[in-house]
Write a structure and sequence with these properties.
- By secondary structure, the protein is an alpha+beta fold.
- The chain has two domains: 235 residues, P-loop containing nucleotide triphosphate hydrolases (Rossmann fold); 134 residues, Beta Barrel (OB fold (Dihydrolipoamide Acetyltransferase, E2P)).
- Helix content is 23%, strand content 33%.
- The chain contains nine helices and 21 strands.
- It has a six-stranded mixed β-sheet with strand order 6-7-8-3-9-10, sandwiched between helices.
- Helix 2 packs across helix 3, helix 2 runs parallel beside helix 4 and helix 3 packs across helix 4.
- The radius of gyration is 26 Å and the shape is elongated.
- The structure holds adenosine-5'-triphosphate and magnesium ion.
- The site of magnesium ion has 3 residues, from helix 1.
- One of its GO terms (molecular function) is ATP hydrolysis activity.
- It comes from Verminephrobacter eiseniae (strain EF01-2).
- This is ABC transporter related.
- Keywords: ATP-binding, Cell membrane, Membrane, Nucleotide-binding, Translocase, Transport.
């Protein structure tokens, strides 16, 4: 096993008569020995290009890649001791499934009995032990994909690169194998980078996730950090289902408190959201009065006050309002019961805030809804730079 580091790595595809295509733009990341990493991003963002440069199947246009303490830019794939499961599987059609999986082991001069034991083990792990005597053209896409994955996992290597290893599998099998593969990678201390565009899979499998967009590494952090401290508006909107609410606002200082006015400069009294003692926070975050920001809050973190208007019964489950939490009100836009949770839309400052709650709620159409925005769940992003300037959890 080995560590892996990318230093300012770019991939530029050039073709005569065509503009250069910067598929990967100055990506840097350091991956520890034994760490499991997900490359997460939408189609075309440069995940496969990054993986193929690490494996040596694509040249590195700029920057350098190190595996362990060796710079590998100039090494051929076979000299890098990297096992890869390809997006397109790349199985050998004339060989049986067994021989496809055993191929890398036989080259490595492992004893025959040991080869048989390891192939069986990984085939059972991936639920393909019953097709070991078949040939790849006779297999379904999902079976071929698991053979390709088995072939990569079974051979000893310094680094494992898995390009969308479970994209063809149905959800139940996927979630079963996810757990098994994670245990296998951890048990063998396999440094691994896997590509996915499924964030549930990335969160379930990876120690850290590299979020990419348009060739740029947006943030490289643990699943918790991506959720609780997204570095910018892209990550804030991309990670989490349903997506984080992002509401335009402007910064204002008032009576020693830092506030944002929802709905921009026209924001009014009812739509102030406070952050606490102004001077300290504003100085730390470099915030100026009038600065355009986006206020972020996840739909699950907003608390809905179900107390009837004018009533003096405390809301179910709570009464004393925790210090620093913000109360805002707005008209109900929609109330959808999804079978296991409610999606509730509330108009705030010209935008619709989505709230997710566990139970079904009986709310009259267009009624005024009271919401609590817990300080610890709030995020502020600079509208211009798109970067995070403040996370309520840090205050
Ligand atoms: N061999 C190539 N020649 C020219 N351009 C390429 C080549 N391979 C990929 N690209 C381009 O580079 C960009 C990134 O492609 P890449 O395959 O790395 O994306 P990806 O994140 O793996 O996408 P997907 O999720 O669809 O597999 C795309 O714009 C793609 O068209
Ligand atoms: Mg790809």
């Amino acid at each position: 096993m080995a560590s892996l580091s990318l230093q300012d790595v770019s991939k530029i595809y050039t073709r005569k008569g065509r503009a250069d295509n910067w598929a990967v733009k100055s990506v840097s990341m350091a991956i520890d020995d034994g760490e499991i990493i997900a490359l997460l991003g939408s189609s075309g963002c440069g995940k496969t290009s990054t993986l193929r440069m690490i494996a040596g199947f694509e040249s590195v246009s700029q920057g350098s890649i190190r595996i362990g303490d060796k710079t590998v830019n100039a090494l051929a794939p076979a000299e890098r001791n990297v096992a890869m499961a390809f997006e397109g599987y790349a199985l050998y059609p004339p060989l049986t499934v067994y021989d496809n999986i055993a191929f890398g082991l036989l080259r490595g001069k492992v004893a025959r009995d040991e080869v048989r034991r390891r192939v069986r083990h990984v085939a059972e792990l991936l639920e393909i032990a019953d097709i070991l005597e078949r040939y790849p053209p006779m297999l379904s896409g999902g079976q071929q994909q698991r053979v390709s994955l088995a072939r990569a996992l079974v051979r000893p290597a310094d680094l494992y690169l898995l390009d969308e290893p479970m994209s063809q599998l149905e959800p139940q099998l996927r979630s079963l194998l996810r757990g098994r593969i994670k245990d296998y990678l951890i048990a063998h201390r396999m440094t691994s980078v896997f590509v996915t565009h499924d964030q549930t899979e990335a969160v379930a499998l990876a120690d850290r996730i590299a979020v990419m967009s348009d060739g740029v590494l947006q943030q490289f952090a643990s699943p918790e950090a991506l959720k609780e401290r997204p570095a910018n508006l892209f990550v804030a909107g991309f990670i989490g289902e349903p997506a984080m609410n992002l509401l335009p606002a402007v910064v204002a200082h008032r009576a020693g408190r830092l506030e944002v006015l929802l709905g921009g400069r026209q924001g009014h009294e009812a739509l102030r959201v406070g952050f606490g003692p102004a001077a300290r926070i504003a100085a730390a975050a470099g915030l100026q009065d009038g600065q355009a920001v986006q206020l972020g809050v996840r739909p699950h973190k907003v608390r809905l006050d179900t107390q009837p208007p004018g009533g003096d019964m405390p809301a179910a489950g709570g009464n004393a309002q925790p210090a620093g939490d913000n109360i805002v009100q707005g008209p109900l836009a929609f109330n959808q019961w999804q079978g296991d949770q409610s999606h509730i839309g509330v108009e705030l400052g010209g935008h619709t805030l989505l709230v997710v709650t566990d139970g079904a709620l009986d709310l009259a159409p267009h009624s005024r809804v009271t919401l609590e925005l817990p300080l610890a769940a709030l995020h502020l992003f600079d509208s211009h730079t798109q970067q995070a300037v403040l996370h309520g959890a840090d205050l």
